[in-house]
């Protein structure tokens, strides 16, 4: 799988005999969103394409009628005991931690919202499942895992571990899908601030023009922003590839012209987001403000395309 939270959720569910594709996990969790975030204490603006960490997990549990058991503590020892109790009981456990401390992580960037599934341990190492990009089934030293779980900062949690218990009879596919579509569309179409949802994409279109002046190292920061959009665990196109594929699966279950329209629009949006990432990278590499002007125009178009898609999904959900 390509995204950390859906990867971990897939492990927990498969252990209980529930097989769902990664796009379906992402979509049922109403994972799609958008945020443009910038502040004086940030080195460079952040473009996010999904809901905040762990919100997807809570949403998915609700859609499946599953019991989500979450444990958090300020005590490292108690936090470890919580993990050991689940694994010694023969089950995998989900963990939220800071990826920058993990031995196997290819990019030593601190991100406190990273989520993995843990399935075993010995005297020296913990055995985890992470994304394909990070190696799939991997191991890290117990000391590095302890550091990752104890980290503090943006999006971190206090030694958070969690399990999912699914009911014997899951809701029908239609009963799972329609609430997920409704919740995602409502949040996207009615954001509380102008940095979120379709309004946030408009904001990004206005602000991206200034990005060469926003950094003292455009050759570093702009390509890095583009790389995160395409390769940073998003599944490509800032999570739009995953949501496009989710809508494609939904269209096999629900016969709706509006749903097919939304699927077509998100296929278009995915292509446009990849174009934005390429323009941003090119602007940084060449120092060319004209690339950012073109990216701004594409972002304005994206705001319209995604707004129309979400309006169609709101109608599908009733």
Automatic annotation (TrEMBL):
Top-level taxon: Bacteria
One Pfam family of this chain: DUF4872
Domain Butirosin biosynthesis protein H N-terminal: start-end pairs: 3-131
Residues covered by the DUF4872 domain: 144-313
Protein name per the record: BtrH N-terminal domain-containing protein
Species name: Streptomyces broussonetiae
């Amino acid at each position: 799988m390509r995204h950390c939270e859906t990867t971990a959720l897939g492990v927990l569910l498969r252990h209980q005999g529930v097989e769902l594709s990664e796009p379906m996990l992402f979509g049922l969790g109403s994972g799609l969103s958008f945020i443009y975030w910038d502040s004086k204490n940030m080195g460079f603006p952040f473009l996010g394409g999904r809901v905040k960490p762990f919100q997807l997990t809570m949403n998915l549990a609700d859609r499946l009628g599953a019991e989500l058991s979450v444990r958090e503590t300020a005590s490292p020892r108690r936090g470890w005991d919580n993990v050991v109790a689940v694994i010694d009981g023969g089950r995998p456990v989900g963990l939220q931690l800071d990826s920058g401390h993990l031995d196997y992580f290819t990019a030593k960037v601190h991100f406190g919202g990273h989520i993995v599934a843990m399935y075993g341990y010995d005297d020296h190492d913990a055995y985890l499942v992470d994304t394909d990009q990070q190696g799939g089934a991997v191991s890290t030293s117990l000391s590095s895992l302890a550091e990752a779980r104890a980290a503090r900062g943006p999006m971190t949690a206090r030694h958070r571990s969690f399990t999912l218990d699914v009911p014997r009879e899951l809701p029908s596919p239609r009963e799972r899908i329609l609430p997920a579509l409704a919740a995602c569309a409502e949040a996207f179409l009615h954001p509380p601030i102008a940095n979120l949802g379709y309004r946030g994409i408009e904001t990004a279109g206005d602000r991206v023009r200034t990005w060469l002046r926003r950094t003292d190292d455009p050759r570093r920061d702009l390509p890095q922003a583009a790389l995160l959009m395409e390769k940073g665990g998003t599944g490509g196109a800032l999570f739009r590839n995953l949501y496009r594929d989710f809508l494609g699966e939904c269209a096999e279950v629900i016969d709706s012209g509006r749903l097919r329209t939304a699927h077509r629009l998100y296929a278009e949006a995915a292509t446009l987001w990849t174009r934005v990432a390429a323009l941003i990278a090119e602007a940084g590499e060449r120092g060319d403000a004209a690339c950012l002007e073109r990216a701004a125009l594409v972002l304005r178009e994206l705001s319209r395309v995604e707004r129309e898609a979400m309006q169609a999904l709101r109608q599908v959900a009733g």
